[in-house]
Amino acid sequence: MTPKEIFLSSLTRGATTRPSVGSATSIVTTDLLEAIDIAFPDAHLDPGKMAAIAAAGHTVLGFDNVMPLFSVWQESAALGCEMDWGNSGRMPDGHPVYASIDDSVRIPQSFLSEPGCAVPLEALRILREDVGARVAVVGKVFGPWTLGYHLFGVEEFLISTILKPARVKDVMRQLIEVTVDFAEAQIAAGADAITLGDHCTRDLCSPDAYREFLAEIHQELHERICCPLILHICGDTSDRLDYIRQTGIECFHFDSKVPTDQARKLAGEKLSLMGGTSNIDIVLKGTPETIATDMAEKLQLGVDILGPECAVPLDAPHGNLRMIADVVTR
Ligand SMILES: [Zn+2]
Known about the structure:
- The chain contains 15 helices and ten strands.
- The protein has helices at residues 3-11, 30-36, 42-45, 47-59, 74-78, 115-130, 144-152, 154-163, 165-189, 207-224, 241-246, 260-267, 279-284, 288-300, 318-329; strands at residues 20-21, 65-66, 82-84, 93-95, 136-142, 193-197, 229-232, 251-254, 272-275, 305-306.
- The strands form three sheets. Strands 2-5-6-7-8-9 form a six-stranded parallel β-sheet, sandwiched between helices. Strands 1-10 form a two-stranded parallel ribbon.
- β6, α10 and β7 (229-232) form a beta-alpha-beta unit.
- The protein is globular and about 55 Å long.
- Zinc ion binds at residues 232, 234, 310.
């Protein structure tokens, strides 16, 4: 089987000739950028450079997939957020567009042509052409909860979930169209699967809030986006994994704050699991021994795609990511 076949089969817990290794989120480290002689922030706004870094996820690190959307702000930038694109040691950050949840949301008709969206779409086309026959090409979109944080600011959005829940739901109904449109454009550009990021971690969203605001939205996204979806939520999600399982989404990219055996139990037989490896203990500070032990444990406990729990720290050594892949691919 090719790395692509192994990755895509693992997304649905299908049979494979070896375990899969990959990531739904950024694999970029400052030393990887230096090794391939490309810098941030250029790569967030230049499709060729963006694709070249993503391709290094396979050619240098040995992962079974590539994923070019390193920042969490691409579509938010296209929706009008004022951006600080960061540098090689710092990821981008943006500013809200609206001051109040009552402000009317304007989604520019041409948002997919704005650089925030157009650049990753072109990067996906390049990746499909350059490595897509052999490696799985994964896109990434954000759900309406995260888009709400970005457009209104985290504080305004979260307070409004308590004070004006109906208005928040209206806003999310509008923003879900951004998520779907961007996902469809990514599939047309060459994505074999798509990461759906939504920052509804326990410290910002209670299990009741997940059920009230997000469970149906995530289910709808699964129904409307016509490729396998990988849901990524940071932090401890053990109190909502049962709801996530019921959305029908194919794969959950989980954080090491959920113990792996618990994640497997809560995910049930059908939902595939990716990640779960600590970015601090293993990706940043791991040794060959601790990396091998962690991978063996993840495999034994039923993780389907090995790899880091979330976007890797920029200051991590990329050699450790290479070692993660070597455990299963060599
Ligand atoms: Zn995360």
